[in-house]
Specification:
About 25% of the residues lie in helices and about 15% in strands. The chain has about 130 residues and is α+β, with helices and mostly antiparallel strands. It is elongated. The termini are far apart.
């Protein structure tokens, strides 16, 4: 990209009235990128990622890069109850622009098989 085709803020930078150069504004994390990395997290007992299983209820992205994920588990006694939220947090932290992550496990509404994607149902032979 030539200097003249770059966006104006890239060519000239941002300045304060005192003449100081301001750092570039952080980019807001992409929801698609966050979801694609959440899809790398699998329940060790089920060969389907947790997003397709319907365990992710909400992804909220603040302008400052803070991300909140609301998720559930298939059952309150899930043996992966400690590791899955930590894996989600670790995956989301890898997204460019994420400044902080909060993963909250919620139980309302309770998870049921209707939350699974069609791909997940096919993978598990649940039609």
């Amino acid at each position: 990209m030539s200097e003249n085709s770059a966006p104006a803020e890239t060519r000239h930078g941002a300045w304060t009235p005192e003449g100081e150069v301001l750092p570039p504004a952080p980019q807001r994390p992409s929801e698609d990128t966050i979801i694609s990395l959440i899809k790398t997290v699998f329940d060790p007992e089920i060969p389907v990622d947790i997003y397709e299983l319907g365990l992710i209820y909400a992804v909220e992205i603040a302008d400052d890069g803070k991300v909140k994920v609301e998720m559930t588990l298939t059952t309150p006694s899930c043996p992966s109850a400690q590791e899955l939220p930590a894996q989600v947090e670790e995956a989301v932290r890898m997204v460019p622009g994420v400044s902080d992550v909060e993963v909250e496990v919620v139980w309302d509404p309770p998870w049921d098989q209707s939350r699974m994607s069609e791909d997940a149902r096919l993978a598990l032979n649940m039609f």
